[in-house]
């Protein structure tokens, strides 16, 4: 919470009932504030900041957080995944308006001609209309022989068919079910359009549909360097280099969202961490110390001195039995990264450990009064039971204080936030319920298309009638 300075409307003029001085001073000083403490420093109250005190975000920092940049270094600590470089032709396909999926003879289950063909759908951005090309025998389907001729002669994947085949082979290599993402973002905001309302994909077309429907992916493609500055010391050629876009396919596995945590690192020191999933999990309260210790140890031994930058946000996963840590992602130290249970002002102004002089049990830094460092087993064998002071006096135990332990913030049972997450995640990027329900089946999709076209036709007719009446 930001507490702004500045007192109430206390004026500086004299009170009307105050006696007038016998000899007025040509430059009278304002009367002192009656609430002012003369012993306190005469400094103005701090005013609320108008912007978050982020350091400049460089393009190099954004690229360092790209999956293709950090994955080779931490490959042995990440879930199994494959990184596929993307071609210019495929990037042009992702950037193009509308959603048109390529035909693939292996995407369907039917053996007869036409049964195994992936349905082609397209949203026309300018008119807002929806069209599909499917079964010519269906009287309700918007089909024409011209469309059929065009579809037979045009291959939307003609310029990147090799990449399409590589994606298909990679899906098979990873067990048949994968989770996609681009350099920085996963299409979590587009799961409404995928079967099962998840990011699990079984065919290349499942992947294309998610990528082309995601605002997060569009941000990666069009606005990756928003609010960044030129990297100091970088040449013009280096700054002008194109982003090496890639498609990351991760082998799907059962991930417990309660064990995903976001870690905030400043000056190569782990400041704090919190849940990524905004729900209350009772069992986490009993695991705080263990989870924090595992993450701190992993950070100290594997990440602190190996990541390119000193400031970053790291997402990790600590699976049962909570003895190891996996890297899920690295995010920029910037306002675009969600601080979740913290606020960015809170993180940016958080106190750092003074100097890393040693580690005690579970990553706690301990320093004695004479500057010596106490390690595990040197402070009386760890925790001291009540009534057992050992040879250490109460004074020594008070001086030997715990200097630093990163805060682990969880959603608590009594927190209002634990029961106020009524707004679905990524709701700003979702569509109405009827659109989602229509996407669950081909017939529903065609029915929605017909209804949508009827609505547009009525709207155009009403506009035409209104225009003709105005002309009369």
TrEMBL record:
Entries under InterPro entries matching the protein: CDC123 (IPR009772)
Entry GO terms, CC: cytoplasm
UniProt xrefs under PANTHER family: CELL DIVISION CYCLE PROTEIN 123 HOMOLOG, D123 PROTEIN
Compositionally biased spans, kind Acidic residues: 102-114, 144-153, 385-400
Compositionally skewed regions (Gly residues) per UniProt: 1-14, 372-384
Similarity comment: family membership: Belongs to the CDC123 family.
Organism: Friedmanniomyces endolithicus
Segments of this protein annotated with the region Disordered: 1-55, 100-153, 370-400
Name of the protein in its database record: Cell division cycle protein 123
Compositionally biased region (Pro residues): 16-27, 41-55
Pfam family, one: D123
